[in-house]
Amino acid sequence: MKNFLAFVAVLVLGFLIITSLNNNEAFPNYGEADISERVSQAYIDRSATENPGDITFGETTDLESGPANIVTAIVADYRSFDTLGEVTVLFISSLGVALLLGGVNRKRIDLDFHPNFMLRVGSRALFGIILMTGVYVAIHGHLTPGGGFPGGAMIASSMLLLYLADDEFRVKIKGFKMLESVAGSLYVLIGLTGLLLISGGFFLENFLDNGVIGNLFSAGIVPIVYVLIGLKVGSEISGIIDNFLTEEAV
Description:
58% helix; two-stranded antiparallel ribbon; mainly alpha; 250 residues
């Protein structure tokens, strides 16, 4: 009976969230956003490679940087090498916490607070919503506000939720370490590919077709880089959370 009531409560909550977002004018339908409300006028009026003149969302092809989100164009294109440095700073911070607090024999910290049944079940349902929202934000970072950093933070927050709502939960930290290493390595390899494939190219230069601005598959390597950043940030922060909420096993 408790499981049924918890399931019904989660369905009602999910319905209310989805309904409120659909009826909110601040969240336009996908593809119907007015790009002039999201980027500067100077960005809209600059010339495109094939279609000089105004930049039209969903029509203009092969734009200089590709992203419809001007912030993404700066972070993951014009100064992408600097963004790699920021990710490296986060990695060093995560490594420092792991060296200070990490260890082989670790267990969950025993807290005085013990979550009840409803909190455990509800948190697991909310975990999926937060996780998928983080993935969505990371994947669509070149189209809408967001990207790898906020998407990764959302992914890590879903892990923190389970830590706080379930006193028996323990993340598989080895998997996160592997994911962080793979994402970071691919980020560097993509940068080297642009350097090697293009004559006179530079590190992290785009070597893919920019496509049509506003499409999901557009902006060249920018969405790929942002997804890798999201995975790397999410795994590193999740590792930090695990280190702070565990202790040496006696």
